[in-house]
Design brief:
Helices cover about 65% and strands about 5% of the residues. The protein starts with about 30 loop residues before the first helix and ends with a helix. The strands form two sheets. The protein has a three-stranded antiparallel beta sheet. Helix 15 packs across helix 19. With about 475 residues, the chain is mainly α. The chain has three domains: about 100 residues, Winged helix-like DNA-binding domain superfamily/Winged helix DNA-binding domain (Arc Repressor Mutant, subunit A); about 130 residues, Up-down Bundle (Four Helix Bundle (Hemerythrin (Met), subunit A)); about 120 residues, Four Helix Bundle (Hemerythrin (Met), subunit A) (Up-down Bundle). The N terminus is likely disordered. The protein is globular.
Length: about 475
């Protein structure tokens, strides 16, 4: 591929510190990684800002190195980051090169789910996060449902046969999520929902118990749809409690070890999921491999088997296996090694990479700012209330309220005691950072907050430190209302 095919937008600003990246013995691995992260962010910004679409070529690694004026190592690491996040595709061979991949909310959900499984979030954390997310989603669906939506929702209720039971549950829920028209919340809801999928693969419930549990969810979801259509939010939320009770039963039934019982559960789940026609074989295999790693206790670096052994174990084709492994490698779940120590090894999902990758994918999806604000209000206010209920309150929260809003939001998430909410708040905080702090014409406090915004942020900190959950919830919503002006 000739240099003329390289997009001219991919040029480093002459004033950028990236220009100082020349090989030097003084460079540390940490510094190089930071440079690679910054370069990946720069390329991502230029992909979005330049309006480049799926399939566009960025040239070759060597051409990008020349164009960007940085070391080949930094370019290679930056490209690895973008490939792992699903932003680009790297093809080898005669027609190879670096190409822009299609943006995908599914890749975000899988990345988040894998990290949450890696840190072993509890059933209580999952149910608590689901209750908060579903309440917000249902409220938005109730406000935004249209006559056309009502027709679509009721069509899904016709999937009544037992063979279509699981499919009905998936379709009903997806249709209800779509009515909310809140893509950020929808992505978070799906990510948490995928934890239930993993539980199905390891469930110790009997066939009858599993069937009854899923039937309850399906029938209650149907009632919930009618409550949304009738504009009865109280009824819709009451039904959600029943659904979450059933979900909790399923999650608690997931076997924590890797044995014959989980192998039988996996075969049963695969049969159910295959009948549901919801997933392609590589997608199911991704669920299987991740579930097996979870059942082993997620031992980082453990050898899971050679390609031949895994093909036999999972009874899949080589093409389906390699597609699944490539996707799992992108989110840090596994690593396929070649050579003397070849084989598949369990990886270690990195929370910082999950956050940065999610923010970059959201950027590529072109999601409106209003959707992020909705998600921040829906998650941040309950997180502030939960933080106020914790016995140990960080003394520096008031100080954080004086600074940039992003770290303040992240701290509230961390203090909530729920690692799912903490991750979502961190994602939203990184996306939000700096968006309003320097708006023109607004008088700011010395550390960057607009004056009134600072006062409301400090009120949140004070209510959390005082243990006043109700006031913390109210003040967070007040801050969001102020920032929306």
């Amino acid at each position: 591929m000739s240099g003329s095919h390289v997009n001219p937008r991919f040029m480093t600003d002459a004033s950028s510190p990236l220009q100082s990246d020349s090989p030097s013995p003084a460079d540390t691995d940490s510094r190089r990684e930071k440079l690679a992260d910054r370069l990946a962010a720069q390329i991502q910004d230029q992909i979005v800002g330049g309006g480049l679409t799926e399939g566009s070529s960025l040239g070759s690694e060597a051409e990008l190195t020349d164009q960007l004026g940085v070391s080949r190592w930094t370019v290679r690491e930056a490209l690895n980051i973008l490939e792992n996040e699903g932003t680009i595709l790297i093809r080898r061979g005669r027609y190879g090169g670096i190409f822009i991949a299609a943006p995908s909310a599914d890749s975000i959900g899988m990345s988040i789910r894998s990290y949450l499984e890696f840190v072993r979030v509890t059933v209580d954390e999952i149910v608590e996060a689901r209750r908060i997310l579903d309440e917000a989603t249902l409220q938005l669906a109730l406000e935004r449902v249209t006559p056309a939506d009502i027709v679509a929702l009721r069509q899904q209720q016709n999937l009544e046969s037992e063979t279509e039971g699981l499919k009905a549950g998936f379709v009903q829920y997806e249709t209800l999520l779509a009515v909310s028209r809140s893509p950020v919340l929808q992505t978070f809801v799906r990510a948490v929902g995928q934890l239930g999928m993993s539980a199905i693969l390891r469930s110790t419930l009997s066939d009858a118990q599993l069937s009854d549990t899923m039937r309850v969810v399906r029938l209650k979801r149907r009632e919930q749809i009618e409550a949304v259509i009738a504009n009865r939010i109280g009824r819709a939320l009451s039904i959600e409690d029943t659904i979450l009770d059933a979900t909790s039963t399923l999650l608690e039934s997931a076997c924590p070890s890797h044995d014959a019982e989980t192998a039988a559960a996996r075969l049963r789940a695969l049969h159910l999921l295959d009948n549901a026609r919801r997933f392609k074989r590589p997608e199911l295999l991704m669920q299987e491999i991740t579930s097996d790693i979870v059942a082993r206790g997620w031992p980082v670096g453990e050898h899971l088997g050679s390609e031949a052994e895994l093909l036999a174990r999972y009874n899949v084709s080589r093409s389906a296996f390699r597609e699944a492994v490539r996707s799992l490698e992108q989110i840090g779940v596994v690593e396929m090694r070649t050579g003397r120590r070849s084989g598949l090894k369990s990886g270690s999902p990195n929370p910082d990479k999950v956050v940065s990758g999610t923010v970059r994918q959201f950027s590529r999806l072109g999601i409106a700012a209003a959707s992020f604000q909705e998600a921040l209000s829906a998650i941040g206010a309950p997180a502030a209330a939960l933080a106020a209920q914790q016995s140990a309150i960080e003394s520096d929260l008031r100080e954080l309220a004086r600074g940039p809003i992003g770290p303040f939001f992240s701290a509230i998430g961390s203090m909530s005691g729920n690692r799912i909410l903490a991750l979502f708040m961190q994602i939203l905080a990184v996306n939000e950072a700096g968006s309003n702090d320097d708006a023109p014409g607004r008088k700011a406090k010395p550390n960057g907050h607009p004056a009134q915004e600072y006062d409301v942020a400090l009120a949140i900190a004070n209510s959390i430190c005082a243990g006043d959950a109700s006031l913390a919830h109210r003040n967070f919503l007040a801050l969001q209302a102020f920032r929306a002006r």
